Amino acid sequence: METPRKEGFFGPMKAFSSAQSSLEKLPDGGLRASIMHDTMRGMTIDQLLWWFHNIDQTTTFNGHDFSGPEIDCYQLWHPHDHIKVQWKKKIVNGQGHIQPESVIHINETFQGFVVNESTTITQFDREAFNFEMRLLGMTVGHLLHIYEQTDEGVRYRTEMQIQCRAPIVGRLITQIACRFFASEAKLRAWMIHNVEEVGESEKFIPQLYNHAMTKL
Predict the structure, then answer these.
(1) What's the whole-model pTM score?
(2) Count H helices, E strands: the chain?
(3) What is the CATH number of the domain that holds 56?
């Protein structure tokens, strides 16, 4: 599933082969895509958490300093595919940390597939940033971002699973979701996209984080 490497804002984006990945067909017709990414070298969990909190902000970072034109930070993550991201509902605790049941809206495109939908946060802490996807009022899948600190940087795993566990109609909803919402072809395209965007993280998130810390 290797494709020609795209040029990002900071040079060639990572190749799909830089990550370990799999796509499984589940017994009930569901799908599970799993990606163990190359280490985000030099990054910290604090930087990653800050990024997710501020993913909808703008920046003037140009790869060297902060004298460039204003641009959505989200587009730095993937200049070819990302269109817009925004928090539709942001629930925070006393320390300002985003809590479960917050809602984020994602608009992006990859290999002809368009994503323009909202997802609900189910976990956001120092171990994971997880979403729940819903269709017809029922949970039809999840998107997990699981991370840990290492000496080299942040180890990062992504999993998208399309599967409705609702009683009686779960199998039918799963089949509908895999046909019209997240087909096998769409998940394969998303996997390439995800490797590319995650691979860009180490190239700009530390700089944005450090710049933000100087303003505190």
Answers:
(1) 0.94
(2) 4, 13
(3) 3.30.530.20
